[in-house]
Each structure stands twice: as C-alpha cells, then as structure tokens.
Amino acid sequence: MAYEKRFDGRAFEDTREIDAKAGVVKNADGSAWFKIGKTEAIAAVYGPREIYPRFKQNAKEGVLQCFYNMMPFSGMGDRVRPGGNRRSKEISMVITNALKPALDLSEYPNSAIDVFIELPKTDAGSRCASICAAAIALADAGIPMKDVVSAVAVGIVDGTVLVDLDYAEEAFEGEVADIPIAVIPSTGELTLLQMDGRISKDNLIKALELGKQVSLKISEVQKKALKEVYEVQNEN
Amino acid sequence: MSSEIIAKEKDIVVPGEVLAVGMDFLPSNGTYRNGDKIMASTVGLVNIKGKVIKLIPLRGKYNPKVGDTVIGKVSDILFSGWKVDIGCTNDAVLPLQEASSDYIQRGADLTMYFDLGDYITCKITNVTSQKLIDISANGPGLRKLGTGRLMNVSCNKVPRIIGKQGSMVNTIKEHTGSKIIVGQNGVVWVKNEDPVKELLTAQAIKMIEDNAHTPGLTDKVTSFLSR
Amino acid sequence: MKTEQKEHILDILDKGSRFDGRKFDEMRPVEVTYDISPNAEGSALVKIGNTEVMAGVKMSIEQPYPDTPENGNLSVNVELLPLSNPSFEPGPPSIDAIELARVIDRGIRESGCIDVKSLCIEPGKKVWTVFVDVCSINDDGNLKDAASLAAIAAIKNARFPEVVDGEVNYKKKTDKSVPLNGVPIEVTIVKLGNHFLVDPCPEEENVAEARLTLASLEDGTLCALQKGGQQPLTTEQIDKMIELSVTKAAELRSKL
User: Fold this and answer.
1) Which one of A192, A227, C147, C208 has the lowest number of neighbouring Cβ atoms within 10 Å?
2) Structural domain includes residue A157
3) Inter-chain residue contact A186 with B16, CB threshold 8 Å
4) Which of A61, A64, A140 is the mutation pick for testing B, counting most B CBs within 10 A?
5) CATH number at residue A78
6) DSSP letters of A74-136?
7) Which of A27, A38, A130, A167 to mutate to test the interface with C (most CBs of C within 10 A)?
C-alpha cells in the first residue's frame, strides 16, 4: 500500500510550519533564527575577522567556517554530549559547502567569516534549518551574496515523493529516502545534496524538482525576515 | 529589448532580489548582473543615478578607506611603532614617525606615547590589496583620547550620525554640551562631566543608529533631546 | 584593564549614576520563559536586559555511585557558546565556563533543595541522573546570574519521563516534577571603588575590582559563595555584599 496520507495530515508538497527572524543575537555581526516544525536553529555570524589557526588563511578571499552544534538537551531521548562529535563535524562541513557557492568573499582576504549555529530543539531536518538560518545571518551580516540559500529535505516514503520529512516519516519502516538539499533560489542550482535511503533515478529527479519549487517559498520567508528588521523600526 | 527598473529609489532590498531587467542599466556597489537582470547582493537601500543602480549598505563591518578618520585601540607595541585595532581583520600599523610631531628616539619607551589599551583617533594613510593598513596619529585632531564613554555603532550609520556637514552631531552637542568624536569605523567617543547628559548623548546616538534609514530623523533627535 | 576606562566608570559612579543610568542596586528587566525546548524534560530561557541564556534538563536512569547507592545524581554543565560573544571560542570549555558551572552546581547541591534520595529508583541499581545544561545565547554582562536562574528555572520546569519496564519512554512525560524544598538563587555583586553594584553591564564587569557570587535560600541561608576578581575584600564589605545579594535574590525568585 502506498503512502497516501501523511502522518501529520500535510499535503505532500507542504513543509511543516516555517518562521524566521533576523537580528536575534545582539552581539553578533549578523544573526537569525529559523524554525521548521519543531526544529529550531539560531545562527550568529562573526566576521570578517582574524582567522585562527593562521595557516587556514587565503590571500584571495575570506574563509567561511560554519559550526553546527545541537544543544545537549535539544533532542528526543538521550542527552547529546557537548563538545561535538563526528556527525556534527560532517554537518558543519556540508553546511559550509552549501553556503559558500552563493557568497562573494573576495573583499575579505586573509579573514574568517565564522558562523555559529545552535539548535535548541530538534525534530528532523536540522541541517536544512541550520542552512536557512545561517544564510539569513550571513545576509544580515552584510556579506555579499548572489542569493539567500534555502534548504529543505525532499524524499520518498513508500513510493510517494514528498518534501520535508518529519521524524515519524524518517523512521518509517519501509522504503524511505531522505534527501536534504540546498538551493540558490534565483538559479535553481543545488549546493547541498545528500541522501539516506534508496530511490530510483526518476523519482530522485522528480523529488529534486519539487524541492526547488518549495525552496522558493522558503526563500520568501527568509527574505521577509531580513526586511522585517527595518519595518519594525519604522513603526516606532 | 525593453529595459525596466523594478526596484524603487530608497526601497530596502535583500540579496537575490531583481532590481532591474535589461541591458540599459549598469550594476554598481551592492549589486551584480545575472544574465539580463541586475540583482541585489547585500541588504541595502536602492539608489538610482541615471543608468547606474547601486545599494547603500545597511549592514556589514567597516571597510577601511584611505583618508578616513577612525578610532582604534592600541593592541600591540612593536620595535618601531604600534598595532592598533580599528575593527578590521588586520590591526592597523602606526609607525614611529607618524605617532607624534616630536622626534621619537629609537629605543625610547613607546608606552610614554601610546600604551596598550589606549584609544586614539587616527587617519588611514594606506590600505593594500591584502587589507594591510597604515595609519597616522600626527595631524589636526588626531590624538590619544582621554577618559570617556566608548560606543560601537554600525559603520554604515556613521554618515547619518554625523549628518550633512556635521549638522546631526552638532545638534546633539548643542543640546547636551557633550564632546563627541565619531570614527568612520563606527567607534564613537563621548564625554560629558554630567553622567546623565552623557547617557542622553549616547542614547541619542543609538537612536540615530536604529532609525538611520527612516525620514525625519533630525526632528526625532531634536524632540528626543528636548524631553 | 586600561585605567582610563576604569576611571571613567568610577567617575560616573562617584557622581551617583551608573554607565547605563541604573541605580546601584537596580537589575535590568528580568524575563523567564519556560518550555522552550519540548524534547528536554524541562527547559527555560532567561533574559536579563540583552543577556540571554537557555537551560535544559535531561534525565536518564543510571547506576548509582558505589559509595552512595541510594542517591541520584545531579550534573550541571555550562556552555559559553561562541555564538554569544565574539571572544568565546569553540572547543573545550574555558575556565570561566567551568567556574560558572561549578558555582551553580554548588548552589543547587549544597542548598539541599533537591533530595537526591528521592531520585533513587532501586538502591544500588537504578537512580535518576539529572543533567542540567546551560547555554549562553547573548552575553551582555552578568551571564552568571542569568545562567544560574535559568538552571533552577529549568529544574522547576522539568517533569519525569514515563518509565515502562525499567526503560525510559522519552516521548511521554509524567506530571511528576523534581521535588524541590527551597529555591537557591545566585546574585553576583561587583565592587568598584567604594561602590557595590548588582547586575553589572559589560563595561562595569570589565573593570570590576572584585566580585562575590552568592547563592541564598528563601530564609537567607547562604549555600554557595565564590569570590572573584583581583582585589581583596574586608568582612565589612562582604557583609554589605551579602545583604544586597540576599535582597536581590528574593526579587529574582519572584520572577520564577
């Protein structure tokens, strides 16, 4: 039997509820909060600033360094031991790679642009939420970029192509593929592509096309968040 | 092919937004060309001058420019000069001969002139492609700052804080009697013997920073200071 | 610290004012929000002015220590996240984070507010371990008081998860909370010149001569102390600081 109705009643092309806000960490050069369903990410950008360790510096452009971290109490079940692990290191790396292609860091030779991403609560899709938050934070920090990168998971559950798998769907016993992607909205180019599970080539392409459409909607929420900072002040 | 401007003057735009379509327009600061479109690459206010479209940035750290007067903090003492943190990736270098109109003997105790942690107003004399910065503290108005309140504001808001020919900062000075020095790098020094007035001065500057993109700013500041 | 900045802050204090215009014993607005992270057994967000701290409680069933077979465990950890202050670095906890965690831990543990015996499920075999993790979001001065308030707020907010056949079912929370007999509250007092200040802003924190962090209970019993800073304190000064701290603790307790 195919997956006909989603566990939480969403349409297949619908994400969970999305919300975003820029400028949430006052100390940072740029910051943002992004929420999708029960997953929340806070990102803060510091930089351009001195890079450490120095051997990482690049005389041609700034170096983007992202740090993904789940708060110890953020996940269902056991406490996440602080200090990072193999998973958080890999995710930090793929987030960096997902954001980098959209940025123009040529104005910042020998500098670091540090993005710290913290997750106070996680359900599913935490790396995509992190990318969305980090992209807003980088724009809020005034870093030049082609576009604000959006990210969402697409996939297949029991033969049905859908977007933004939640925890129950990821854990579904049967054919599941979870494919987090990141998109530069204005060009449709993908900057993150990973997959857990099994899928046919046709369904993969179908899922990616769906993901690109959905990323445009997410992009609107991100851009609105960046503008709202100034609207709120206008009312004062 | 027809060209069209989509964004309006003074619109607040964000990266990825289309500002104009067609090849008749030229992308300038804060924008880039993508095929036949001109798009925003930073958060900024749209500024259209003839065929040239640019953005006045609302966010971002200080980008050093020759001739700017900035306020920095002495971060290191070298053999023949000082390093000064002016909020850029690399600390600026203040060479011995640019520190004072006096002749400083080689091997002299440099802390007599500027000590670690001192704040100084200085002028940027050179910036390389690698953003190495030279500064001078020898010139009118350039000196070590005495006791006072130091604030960090966004460098993008500095032009509004200063105002046309210094009108805004002069308004605040007149109302409060405070001494104010505004560095282009967003470091502001404020001093008033009356702590209440000094705080009021700082609050007025903060208010300009928060409302820099809104119209009628001078009136808002005047009414705030007259309260 | 540079003397010019300290001189200026002191000058303002000597004229009866403070850097941000507050009274010497005036806290910035304090705000406590509960249930900010539903996967945690308890959680809270504390704001003091622009300083922001999150805390969460996780509970798990573990073996007790051999020397205390009937006691549950409490573990307090503080993460000074690099997200919250440009000078905080990623990596192992700094000495400030360790000190802060240990002072909060002592305040809660030594107050006896948690009866560790009540965390015992089966003596010698199974006890509850209560992990309290505090994470800084934005450091605008006085992280210490914000962190300890967040820790106790998260403990107050915590509900034991359901236990089925000796296994924890984290998906379901019971309505049983951690039994608390007393709420220890930490308030840090800093000394600058002849002045004693509560809730220092970063400018004051940077030039403070000495500080005293003090946890106290409802009846004024002191349950943790930590002196910090470069300068010594006299007993008269300590007396004044304690009085101020206990008064402010009551004020903070009412925010929970």
Assistant:
1) A227
2) yes
3) yes
4) A140
5) 3.30.230.70
6) SSSSSPPPTT--HHHHHHHHHHHHHHGGGB--TT-TTEEEEEEEEEEE-SS-HHHHHHHHHHH
7) A27
Cβ atoms within 10 Å, residue A53: 6
Rounded to the nearest angstrom, the gap between the alpha carbon of residue C242 and the centroid of all alpha carbons in its chain is: 17
Closest Cα of chain C to A55: distance in Å? 17
List chain A residues with CB under 8 Å of C153: none
Residue B59 to residue A48, Cβ atoms within 8 A: no
Q: How many domains does chain A have?
A: 1
**Fold (CATH) for C3-253:** Ribosomal Protein S5; domain 2 (3.30.230)
State the Cα–Cα distance between residues B184 and B68, nearest whole angstrom: 6
Instruction: List, for residues A72-95, the tens digit of each pLDDT value.
Output: 999 998 999 998 899 999 999 999
Over residues C135-172, the pLDDT tens digits come to 999 999 999 999 999 999 999 999 999 999 888 999 99
Nearest residue to A99 via CA among A138, A126, A68, A141: A138
A1 lies in some domain: no
What are the φ/ψ torsions at residue A182 (nearest 5 degrees)?
Answer: -125, 145
| Cβ(A211)–Cβ(A154) below 8 Å | yes
Beta-strand runs (E) in B14-145: 18-21, 26-27, 31-34, 37-40, 44-49, 52-57, 69-78, 81-85, 92-95, 119-127, 133-136
Token pair for residue C97? 């984070």
For residues A142 and A23, is the Cβ–Cβ distance under 8 A?
no
Task: Report residue A145 CA to chain centroid gap.
Answer: 16
For A162, the domain range is 18-230
On whether any CB of chain C is under 8 Å from the CB of B148, the answer is yes
Residues C256, C156 contacting (CB under 8 angstroms): yes
Interface predicted TM-score (ipTM) over 0.90: yes
- Contact call for residues A140 and B42 (beta carbons, < 8 A): no
Residue A3 lies in a domain: no
- How many Cβ atoms sit within 10 Å of the Cβ of residue C149? 29
Structural tokens at position B180: 């104010």
Q: Is residue A11 part of a domain?
A: no
For chain B, domains (ranges, CATH) are 4-57 (2.40.50.100), 69-136 (2.40.50.140), 149-226 (3.30.1370.10)
pLDDT tens digit sequence for B133-177: 999 999 998 999 989 999 999 999 999 999 999 999 999 999 999
CA distance A79 to C144: 23
Cα angle for residues B15, A206, B16 (degrees, 5° grid): 5
Report field, pTM of the whole predicted structure over 0.90: yes
